[in-house]
Design a protein that fits this description.
The complex is a heterodimer.
Chain A: H1 8-44, H2 48-76, H3 82-102, H4 109-132, H5 134-137, H6 143-160, H7 167-190, H8 194-200, H9 206-209, E1 215-216, E2 222-225, H10 230-250, H11 253-256, H12 265-288, H13 291-314, H14 324-346, H15 353-381, H16 386-410, E3 419-421
Antiparallel strand pairs in A: 1-2, 2-3
Chain B: H1 3-24, E1 31-40, E2 46-48, E3 50-60, E4 65-67, E5 70-72, E6 76-79, E7 82-83, E8 87-89, E9 93-96, E10 101-102, E11 106-108, E12 112-114, E13 120-121, E14 125-127, H2 135-138, H3 144-168, H4 170-182, H5 184-206, H6 212-244, H7 251-268, H8 275-292
Classes of the chains: A mainly alpha, B alpha/beta.
Chain lengths: ~425, ~325
């Protein structure tokens, strides 16, 4: 049976997953990434450095809670339970809705830090729980496309609809969205609906259960190749390079106010449309290319973007801010975001998905964010100018590019060798 | 060493040797490019070659000179010195001070010009169609005449190349053809990514001036890739026609198919609304197929689908 013959509950599950994940990622891109900085600096009166340190703390706690939750769920056998994941997701979204609604009322540093700790705990649980639903709701063959739609649906509104980056603006829009999402999750998690029972059985079907990179041994035991451990390093590298560069660019009104925070709609619209097109391209290429070839493109584009920014600062290229840099940035970000939404489930079985997504998302995304934030602060403290900062990021991207190029050309994939058991 | 490694090595060597020339012979790529900010040149400065202003403010006071033409796309130029060539405006603002010298015409396609009475202008101020800078002249609209002009070099070169490729490189051509015809969406996605990123990359490195040869090489490789892709698709079309006519699939069929493909693609490009998109598709699909197969050096085989059971029994 092909994709077009999927029955409506399967389509509902797929669309629900895309909606849930895109809303979650939109929340992360807007409220967590910029709303909290506005809250800390403008409403609480903290220094930018203190707020950024608190954001690094958020990344660290999220990472730790995520790993503990993912491993714990796997040990307890909850990883394959659709209903437990749904109920946990319901609790987490409910908690985050309350926290988001309360955030604009915070006026003290202690309140801000308490909010950070509670929110990071909720986000940490959310990572393995929501990503873990992939094996129940997204067929393996559609994971690249699902990642593409999630990325497009999250980045387009984040780029186009958010000129006013205040915590009140973000919270007022998101609370209703999250409350609606929590209500749907509550119904799905607790109401005895027949089609939900059908969705709960998906993970026992091969078309959902065994990710693209899962192989089977002679005795039928599923495993993933040892070489895929390099995925964690590469995703860490991508997030690190992206975050290290973007943190500094976000502090540079010269670039930022001409692009992501432009008062005019057109630049933001161009960036948003680029995100959508690049996400769709990535969705197709996710199955068309090996993951290392995709990483090669991503690091290459990141290297190119930071080269463009540093040339711009040096006056060699466009000295005035142009849209070419943020547009290429959007291409790179969309490519890796699509991969991030698809790849952890594709190295997992229903029993290992919470552990693998927790390790993957926590160790690559959140830990990289923590380290890059700390490093960016340190570099700023040392008085390293923007141009040098971008050149360092560019060098890192180029280094990773060369590393992946070596892997692509001299250790091609497609040769199943020794693997790590994936029970 | 595999052929692909040799190919990369060759490209690197050619690039390196191409780059070494200009570094030893300063002046070959002389010119000034201004893309932003305010730049005031000191008296006595002589800018070699053309001055291209894309954005920003440029002030050339008395006793400065531009040893070539000036192109103003946006931004502003305050001229008090001399320009040894034409000044062409596609936008922005040109203001001359008393004593400024222009040894050529001032061509105004768009933008504002304020020539002070004390300016010495050898040529004329040309605006409108006489300037040769009207948008339709720079970016000509699609017309049968333009399509034929674009088609001419293609039909002169590619059918012959298709004949040779089908005769001497049948396997690479077949691999590209299979990638384009059996996986058109993957090829289109790959072609779009490679085309956009490649173009931006080569334009960016051209700003360094020293790497302009690499840019030219890269663009040549890009055109070669699209041409090779067209040959592969033309071969498929030629073979199909030959089989319908009960003839054998010979290199001449590839040449004929490529010719028909190019004529058809250029004619379809004339269609209103959809013509440009059809032509763009005709560029990115073959380009993507060539990239996916690495110039036909490998067979493109996508990942196998997982066990195909999406039922909800």
């Amino acid at each position: 049976m092909n994709t077009w013959q999927m029955k409506w509950p399967a389509w509902f599950g797929l669309l629900f997953f895309i909606g849930m994940m895109s809303a979650g990622y939109y929340y992360n891109l807007t409220f967590v990434q910029f709303g909290l900085i506005d809250l800390g600096v403008r409403l609480v009166g903290m220094e930018t450095r203190q707020v950024v340190t608190a954001m690094a703390l958020l990344a660290l706690i999220t990472s730790l809670v995520s790993v503990v939750t993912g491993l714990g769920m796997m040990k307890l056998g909850w990883s394959a339970s659709f209903y437990i994941k749904l109920r946990l997701a319901f609790g987490v979204i409910l908690g985050l809705t309350v926290l988001t609604g309360a955030a604009p009322a915070i006026r003290t540093g202690t309140g801000f830090l308490t909010w950070i700790v509670l929110a990071s705990a909720a986000l940490g649980i959310a990572v393995p729980v929501t990503f873990g639903l992939t094996v129940d709701l997204v067929p393996v063959r559609l994971r690249g496309y699902a990642g593409a739609f999630i990325t497009a649906a999250a980045y387009f509104p984040a780029a186009v609809l958010s000129p006013d980056w205040t915590v009140e603006n973000f919270a007022s829009g998101l609370v209703w969205l999250m409350a609606g999402g929590a209500a749907v999750l509550g119904v799905m998690a607790f109401a005895p609906l027949g089609f939900i029972r059908q969705l709960a059985a998906h993970h026992s079907q091969p078309s959902y259960a065994h990710g693209r990179f899962i192989r089977r041994g002679r005795d039928g035991t599923p495993y993933v190749r040892r070489s895929l451990v390099v995925l964690f390093v590469l995703m860490f590298g991508i997030y690190f390079v992206d975050s290290l560069g973007f943190l500094r660019l976000a502090e540079t009104p010269y670039f930022f106010e001409a692009a992501w925070q432009s008062q005019e709609l057109q630049p933001r619209l161009v960036i948003g449309i680029t995100h959508v097109i690049a996400a769709l391209v990535a969705g197709v290429l996710y199955r068309a290319l090996s993951e290392k070839e995709l990483f090669l493109w991503i690091f290459g584009i990141f290297g190119l973007v930071h080269l463009m920014y540093s040339l711009s600062l040096r006056g060699v290229s466009a000295s005035g801010p142009t849209l070419s840099e943020p547009v290429m940035y959007a291409v790179a970000v969309s490519l890796y975001t699509v991969i991030n939404f698809a790849i952890w489930a594709d190295i997992s079985t229903p029993h290992t998905i919470t552990r693998n997504t927790a390790l993957g998302v926590a160790l690559s995304a959140w830990t990289a964010t923590f380290f890059s934030t700390a490093l960016a602060l340190q570099m700023s403290e040392m008085g390293i100018p923007l141009e040098t900062h971008l050149r360092i990021v560019d060098s890192l991207a180029f280094l990773f590019f060369l590393l992946v190029a070596g892997l692509v050309f001299f250790a091609p994939l497609g040769r199943p060798k020794k693997g790590i058991p994936s029970p | 060493m595999k052929r692909i490694h040799l190919l990369w090595l060759g490209i690197l060597l050619v690039s390196a040797s191409a780059c070494s020339g200009p570094a030893d012979q300063p002046g070959i790529y002389s010119g000034t490019l201004v893309l932003g900010n305010r730049h005031v040149f000191d008296p006595g400065t002589v800018l070699p070659g053309a001055l291209l202003i894309l954005e920003g403010e440029v002030e050339l006071p008395a006793e400065t000179a531009v040893d070539g033409p000036v192109f103003l796309l946006n931004g502003s130029l305050l001229l008090g010195g001399s320009v040894r060539g034409d000044i062409s405006l596609l936008g922005g603002q040109l203001v001359t001070a008393r004593g400024a010298v222009i040894l050529g015409d001032v061509r105004v396609g768009s933008g504002q010009v304020d020539i002070s009475p004390g300016t010495s202008l050898t040529g004329e101020i040309l605006s409108g169609p006489a300037s040769g800078l009207q948008p339709e002249e720079i970016f000509p609209r699609q017309s049968l005449e333009n399509a034929l002009m674009r088609l001419l070099p293609q039909v002169l070169l590619l059918p012959g190349a298709a004949f040779l490729a089908a005769r001497f490189l049948p396997r690479p051509v077949s691999r590209v053809r299979r990638a384009a015809l059996h996986h058109p969406i993957s090829a289109a996605a790959m072609g779009l990514l490679a085309g956009v990123v490649g173009l931006v990359f080569f334009v960016v490195i051209a700003f360094t001036l020293i790497l302009i040869p690499v840019t030219m090489l890269g663009l040549a490789v890009g055109f070669l890739s699209i041409g090779f892709g067209w040959i592969a698709l033309g071969t498929a079309l030629g073979d199909w026609i030959a089989s319908r006519l009960g003839r054998s699939q010979v290199p001449s069929a590839s040449a004929l198919g490529t010719l028909l493909l190019l004529v058809g693609l250029n004619l379809l490009a004339l269609l209103p609304w959809v013509g440009d998109w059809i032509f763009l598709t005709g560029l990115i699909v073959p380009l993507g197929a060539v990239v996916l197969t690495r110039f036909g050096l490998r067979e493109y085989v996508p990942e196998a689908d997982p066990e195909d059971d999406l039922s909800l029994s």
